[in-house]
Amino acid sequence: MKQFDSTYISKLLQGQAGVHQVASQLQVRGYNVMFPSVDHGYDLEVEGGVRVQVKCAHLSFRKPYEYGAYMFRLRKSNRKGREAVPIFSDKNHFFVLWGIEENRFWIVPAHVLDGKSGASVGPKVSYVSVDIEHARNMLASGREIEEVASLYECSVATIQRRLKGIYTKTSRGFCIELRSFEGKWEQIPDFLNSMREADGLPLLAESQAMVKAE
Length: 214
Description:
The chain is an alpha+beta fold. It is about 35% helix and about 15% strand.
């Protein structure tokens, strides 16, 4: 019988906790949630056909986010260690990202994450712009790297990475876009209504009114 290490089991439990946490958030908002018995590439389906993928993460202080961030891994490596470019919107309508420590939720349309391997959001996710040539000249003139870091209001590690050509481009626009989806649960009924409208069905509010009248 195959043995699984404690790290693998912990990740499985965390993933299931995330699925049930998101399901409960949807249910208290009045939506009937179904759990697929077979893995079709999504974790939950809201009655009416909205497919949801759930990802969760602990607050991390790993580089380059010294001030903390939730770092969500969106795809897995294949056996050769290479990763195919994922098109999540083929199977999902939304991703719900759960930040465990602060119980925060980002409800992200799946197409926003197409082609992404991960997403980082959280309390202070930021990017410090450093004039690399200027930093090099300061160091060449005998200035200490701590002084350069102080000038740019960042850590010494940030200056060292920039000088090595690491993280020289920002994905700040993407991070800002992700932040805008925090708590946006209303996107789900809006999407359900667009689907119902396309099928010629009454909108949710109208449908609920009809049920109450009966």
